[in-house]
């Protein structure tokens, strides 16, 4: 009885150990027919780049509240989606406070000008009086000099009196000259102060007028108005998911707040991103075909207007190994008024053509630790071999290091199959790229 129980247990143990060993040791497929293969092809290959993007306005101008030192009240405001012509009023603010400042500056300017007129008149009168006083003083000095010249013919007492009178006249003339000079300098300084007050009043008036003019904001070109959200409507408290209203007539707004955008109409451009591996295949001015999802079946000719020289940085959640993307803008050759900003598009860019390129299917090239390799068929088995990738497209890879006609695997033959029907092919690349 004991032997009958032990023997089945031993058999079960042997079968379990064999199954575990089979699962622990990966092996190549027993038949090479189970691994799909392809051959290295040599011939012309056009590096056509495909990408997706969106339509954007060629120009967008944001209208910002002018710096006036206080809150403003919106009087006139064009609603979102309304078309405007160049020079049309989009936003107008209440100019009451600025008009008061302008009138005050005008009053100060008039006062300063009248003060200057009065000072100039007073200076003219004082100058005439000083001229008379100087003429009298010089006459007194001359008379004293004549009286002193005849001192030898008169008594000593009269002669001494003439000398004292001459000295007094000379001192009086010298003092009068100093007083005239001092009064002239004082009048000039006072006039300069009044002139500065007038200049200050003129600048204040000009500033007030400029502020009043800036309170009427006009469209710089033909376009469509898009109003901004009023972030002051909630009292400065903004919560996640809160819906803020747009600005409207009667709202008060602080200086420096964006009020509205004027989006240029009739001139659209395409903004897209391309993979860093496709960046060398593109140059400025290159032709492209744009298909707009909102206009199915229609194609528009465009050219590369601007191609970024720096890749966009990865965000906080992306690792450093993530493929970088370059910004790309396209200009339409013939603008179409049916094109609206925000629409999604598909872009096909005509890349250069390589006449004698060795290329293989993209899924045949594998990447590990920064090295590219393929599995070359050798007899009934596959051998891993390093290759150099020259160019990539959506479906093909230009390589070097293999000969034309070499048979290679399209899947990793060393990968373990997860179950019936499981695929061992590498992940399909994302949208964008070339083909």
Characterize the structure shown.
α2 (96-149) runs antiparallel to α3 (156-214). The protein has 435 residues and is α+β, with helices and mostly antiparallel strands. The chain folds into four domains: 27-45 and 354-434, conserved putative lor/sdh protein from methanococcus maripaludis s2 fold (Beta Barrel); 50-56 and 267-349, Beta Barrel (Elongation Factor Tu (Ef-tu), domain 3), CATH 2.40.30.170; 59-94 and 216-264, Beta Barrel (OB fold (Dihydrolipoamide Acetyltransferase, E2P)); 97-214. The strands form six sheets. A six-stranded antiparallel β-barrel has the order 3-12-15-14-13-16. Strands 2-17-22-21 form a four-stranded antiparallel beta sheet, with no helix packed on it. The protein has helices at 2-24, 96-149, 156-214; strands at residues 37-39, 41-46, 49-57, 60-64, 72-77, 83-84, 89-93, 216-218, 223-227, 252-253, 258-264, 268-275, 287-292, 299-311, 325-332, 344-349, 353-361, 366-368, 371-378, 381-386, 388-392, 396-400, 407-409, 433-434. The protein is built from three helices and 24 strands. The longest helix has 59 residues, at 156-214. It is elongated and about 155 Å long.
């Amino acid at each position: 009885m004991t032997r009958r129980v032990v023997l089945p247990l031993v058999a079960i143990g042997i079968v379990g150990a064999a199954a575990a060993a089979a699962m622990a040791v990966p092996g190549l497929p027993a038949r090479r027919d189970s691994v799909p293969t392809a051959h290295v092809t040599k011939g012309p290959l056009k590096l056509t780049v495909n990408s997706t993007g969106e339509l954007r306005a060629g120009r967008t101008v944001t209208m910002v509240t002018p710096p006036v030192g206080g809150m403003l009240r919106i009087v006139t405001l064009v609603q979102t989606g309304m078309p405007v012509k160049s020079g049309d009023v989009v936003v107008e603010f209440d100019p009451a406070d600025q008009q008061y400042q302008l009138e005050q500056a005008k009053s100060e300017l008039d006062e300063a000008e009248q003060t200057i007129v009065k000072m100039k008149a007073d200076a003219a009168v004082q100058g005439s009086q000083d001229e008379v006083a100087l003429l009298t003083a010089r006459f007194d000095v001359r008379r004293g000099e004549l009286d002193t010249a005849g001192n030898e013919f008169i008594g000593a007492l009269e002669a001494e009196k003439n000398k004292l009178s001459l000295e007094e006249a000379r001192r009086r003339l010298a003092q009068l000259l100093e007083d005239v000079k001092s009064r002239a300098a004082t009048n000039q300084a006072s006039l300069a102060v009044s002139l500065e007050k007038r200049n200050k009043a003129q600048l204040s008036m000009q500033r007030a007028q400029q502020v009043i003019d800036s309170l009427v904001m006009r469209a710089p070109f033909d376009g469509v108005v898009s109003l901004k959200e009023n972030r002051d409507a909630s009292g400065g408290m903004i919560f996640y998911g809160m819906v803020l209203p747009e600005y409207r007539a009667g709202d008060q707004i602080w200086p420096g707040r964006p009020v509205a955008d004027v989006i240029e109409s009739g001139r659209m451009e395409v903004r897209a991103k391309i993979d860093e591996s496709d960046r060398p295949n593109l140059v400025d001015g290159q032709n492209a075909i744009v298909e707009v999802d909102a206009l199915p079946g229609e194609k528009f000719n465009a050219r590369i207007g601007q191609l970024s020289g720096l890749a966009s940085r990865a965000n906080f959640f992306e690792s450093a190994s993530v493929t970088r993307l370059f910004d790309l803008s396209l200009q339409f050759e013939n603008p179409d008024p049916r094109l609206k900003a925000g629409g999604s598009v598909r872009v096909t860019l005509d890349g250069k053509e390589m006449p004698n390129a060795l290329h293989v299917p993209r899924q045949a090239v594998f990447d590990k630790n920064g090295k590219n390799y393929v599995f070359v068929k050798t007899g009934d088995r596959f051998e891993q071999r390093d290759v150099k990738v020259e160019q990539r497209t959506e479906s093909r890879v230009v390589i070097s290091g293999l000969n034309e006609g070499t048979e290679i695997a399209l899947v990793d033959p060393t990968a373990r199959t997860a179950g019936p029907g499981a695929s061992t092919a590498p992940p399909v690349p994302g949208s964008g790229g070339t083909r």
